[in-house]
């Protein structure tokens, strides 16, 4: 096993480290119920997670036949956040193998950080409640950096905040936002097929696809060898 000292691995959060769709869609469905609309099924709505809360609301409302008009009803967004915070870890769990794999990568010297389109405060709350905080040098939501994914600046600045070198970084994600970020930043990308991607994983434009989180170290080794 190679030494990973000097390598930084930047993780997407929703759909990559944690299976958070049940709680996010739960909040979406409680809001739809208040507005008098039927819930959207988890199976058809999970691919909406990964582009931030506003995108989830806009597309989730559309899927239910409702209209998300934040300009007319700004209180709805605050309601979404309050409801989500109240339920943030009810059903959400790390994907299988996450804790052991992060420990193994850290033990080999890698710096780990998070680059997510979920707001930093919500991300830190969730990561704390799931007892994952010790793994990460920094958790960077879009509000902690100068631009949000798929802008490459999001992952570059997250890696720098973690004390790492973007020239020796790898992105790990589940959606087009992540592969786009990696491409824009000029860093390689591992795609997690078990996440919330909206197209088949091999069409996302990543460098390696993994079907289990535990396969990540081998994927990182393969990418670093290729470089
Ligand atoms: O959609 C979100 O809330 C953020 O999702 P991400 O962690 O996949 O970037
Ligand atoms: Mg994601």
UniProtKB/TrEMBL annotation:
Record's function text: Specifically catalyzes the dephosphorylation of 2-phosphoglycolate. Is involved in the dissimilation of the intracellular 2-phosphoglycolate formed during the DNA repair of 3'-phosphoglycolate ends, a major class of DNA lesions induced by oxidative stress.
Task: State the reactions this protein catalyses.
Answer: 2-phosphoglycolate + H2O = glycolate + phosphate
Q: Where does Mg(2+) bind?
A: 12, 14, 174
* Gene Ontology molecular function: any one: phosphoglycolate phosphatase activity
Which HAMAP family does the entry link to? GPH_hydrolase_bact
Pathway(s) where this gene product acts: Organic acid metabolism; glycolate biosynthesis; glycolate from 2-phosphoglycolate: step 1/1
Q: Which cofactor does it need?
A: Mg(2+)
Annotated Gene Ontology cellular component terms: cytosol
The record's Gene Ontology biological-process terms are: carbohydrate metabolic process; DNA repair; glycolate biosynthetic process
Q: Which family does it belong to?
A: Belongs to the HAD-like hydrolase superfamily. CbbY/CbbZ/Gph/YieH family.
Q: What is its EC number?
A: 3.1.3.18
Q: Which UniProt keywords apply?
A: Carbohydrate metabolism, Hydrolase, Magnesium, Metal-binding
Top class in the EC scheme:
hydrolase
Q: Any idea what this protein is called?
A: Phosphoglycolate phosphatase
User: What residues form the catalytic site here?
Assistant: 12 (nucleophile)
Please give the superkingdom of this protein's source.
Bacteria
């Amino acid at each position: 096993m190679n030494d990973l000292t000097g390598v930084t691995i930047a993780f997407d959060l929703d759909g990559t480290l944690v299976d958070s769709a049940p709680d996010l869609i739960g909040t979406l469905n409680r809001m739809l119920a208040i507005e008098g609309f039927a819930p959207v099924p988890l199976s058809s709505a999970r691919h909406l997670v990964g582009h931030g809360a506003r995108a989830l609301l806009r597309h989730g409302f559309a899927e239910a036949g409702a209209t998300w008009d934040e300009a007319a009803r700004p209180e709805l967004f605050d309601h979404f956040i309050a409801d989500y915070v109240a339920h943030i870890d009810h059903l959400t769990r790390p994907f299988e193998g996450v804790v052991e794999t992060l420990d193994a990568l850290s033990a080999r010297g890698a710096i780990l950080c998070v680059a997510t389109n979920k707001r930093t405060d919500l991300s830190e709350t969730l990561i704390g409640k799931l007892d994952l905080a010790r793994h990460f040098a920094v958790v960077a939501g879009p509000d902690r950096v100068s631009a949000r994914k798929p802008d490459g600046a999001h992952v570059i600045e997250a890696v720098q905040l973690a004390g790492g070198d973007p020239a020796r970084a790898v992105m790990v994600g589940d959606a087009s936002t992540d592969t786009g970020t990696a491409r824009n930043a000029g860093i390689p990308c591992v795609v997690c097929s078990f996440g919330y991607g909206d197209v088949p994983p091999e069409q996302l434009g990543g460098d390696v696809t993994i079907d289990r989180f535990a396969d990540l170290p081998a994927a990182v080794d393969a990418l670093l060898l290729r470089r």
